[in-house]
Amino acid sequence: MDAKPSRREVTHDRIVETASRAIRRAGYQGVGVADIMKEAGLTHGGFYAHFASRNALLVEALERAGQDGAAHMRRRMAERQAQGASEFRALVESYLSDAHLGGAEHGCPVAALCSEMPRQAPEVREASAQRVQGMVSLVKKALPANTPASTAMVVASTMVGALQMARALGDNAQGKALLKANRQSLITQYEPSGG
Hints:
Order of helices and strands: HHHHHHHHH
Distance between the termini: 42 Å
Strand content: under 5%
Largest sheet: none
Radius of gyration: 18 Å
CATH architecture: Orthogonal Bundle
CATH superfamily: Tetracycline Repressor, domain 2
Structural class: mainly alpha
């Protein structure tokens, strides 16, 4: 039987969850300790009881965002696969969906933060690189087994870039058209036969 989490663990988790949404919504620079603590319903003074630094919070928040985003993507993919889509088609259609266009706060942290990743502290850059590698691995797994690793990199880059550009256009007809064009292109180029 699992032990009930302590009050400290519950509070820590609430801070990380709040920060994971905030970094996807406002970027790394848009995440202030005072704002996160306030949004979590806590006082600013309690922050250092949970984290050694703001960067330590960012690392945990990014890891949580990656876990949450991956779990959400797996659920969406499973729904599409249950309707007969191949794993690759399910991935592309889920990632480049209209729902993901407007859902930055709960979506992929790579697409939300990619342009900011290189300018972060080393520990945050390392956590960011792990998220990018995870995205490439997810794509590689959805492609046929004999597909070169470079193809997974290209597809992942296309998906992330398409989502970023669509978000720049907005959650409107233009943004949705850009996603649709990329979905169709990727599926036409890389869909396994019989999918």
